[in-house]
Amino acid sequence: MRLIHSLLGCVVAVGLVSVPAPVAAQATGTTTFNAPYRAFTRSEIGVLLSFPDGGGTAIEGAYRMAGGRFDFGFKGGFFDPPGPGHTELLIGAEARQRVITHTVDFPLDGALLLGVGGNLVSGSAVMVIPAGLSLGRRIDPQGSTVSIVPYVEPTVFLLAGDATDHVQFSLGLGADFRLTRVFDARISAGLGDVEGVSIGAVWVH
Questions:
Q1: Where are the alpha helices (DSSP H) in the chain?
Q2: The whole model's pTM is what?
Q3: Which phi-psi region, left, alpha or beta, contains residue 122 (left: φ > 0; alpha: ψ -120 to 50)?
Q4: Number of H-type helices and E-type strands within the chain
């Protein structure tokens, strides 16, 4: 219930400042998708860089914390579009709940992802609510201390505002690399309505 209340609070907070605004594909959010399970015990903090297919660069800071069987976190940063456009403020919150554990019949682990975010520029804002299912499995190469989590995350984006499309879809593809006991390198890409690539450096605790 605390998770639901927190997400509803974020929805209300972003919704109060949202006004109709034109929405381009990259205004729905960055292509920083998520593996099906967390890499940390207590929390993680990281820096994420995204390069949308239409050009520009986004930089975000991210913080996540454990909450029983789920984890919850916040993202914030800026998107610098190509050309003379104004820099956009990106804010958001995400929650992840593990729902599938691999078996002999189904070899993947899975988690539900739910979020809410805001894209603010020049006094206007657009709200986006992404919902996805992440499917993947950790790989531990023999004789190596590095582990890899490749995954896919089909995601639906619900947009609030004067948008041409109020529902968009993207297929997220990604991999998390555990390089040391406390450091992860992450890469992901989006195909569909939200396209581009993202890389990240994350410290886990």
A1: 2-17
A2: 0.83
A3: left
A4: 1, 10
